Structures are given as structure tokens and as C-alpha cells.
Amino acid sequence: LKAIAMDHGNPTIDGATVWFCSDEHVTFAADAPARVGDRVRVRPAHVDPTVAKHAALHLVDGEEVVEVWPVDLRGW
Predict the structure, then answer these.
(1) CA distance linking residue 9 with residue 64, whole number of Å
(2) Where are the chain's structural domains?
């Protein structure tokens, strides 16, 4: 995945088994049926390089975004 670092293996998804990751897709088997439009929360296996690929980090509590932190790692 271009938005998630893959150097430490596949990301995880609660309630699912991740089978395969490509540049833009995660193939997984959900424990319960999913519908088009359902949100799936994907957790990267290695967060440091994943954060470096984005301009902001969104901190969430359940479904609520509680803070947005800017990320500027250019020049490191």
C-alpha cells in the first residue's frame, strides 16, 4: 500500500484476516459480512514510516476525531 509502510508485514484489521496487500488494496476475509460503504479501520504493522507518508495524523476516540496533528518530516 502506498499509504501504509509494509516493512514489518501486513496491517491488521479487527474482526478480519488479512490475506494480501498490494499497492492500493488490502484483501481480507471479514468475520461478519461487510457492505459497500462500510468503514474498515486498518492498523499498520510499522507506524513510524506510515506517519511519514502523510501530512497530518488524526487522533480518534471511537468514531470521533479528537485532534489533528500536523506531520512535517521533510528534511530528516
Answers:
(1) 28
(2) 12-70
* d(C-alpha 66, C-alpha 12), whole Å: 23
Residue 6, φ and ψ in degrees, nearest 5? -115, 10
Q: Is residue 63 helix, strand or coil?
A: coil
pLDDT tens digits in sequence order for the chain, 76 residues long: 566 666 667 777 888 888 877 767 788 888 988 888 888 877 777 777 778 888 998 999 988 999 999 998 766 5
Percentages helix, strand, coil for the chain (3-state, rounded to 5) are: 5, 35, 55
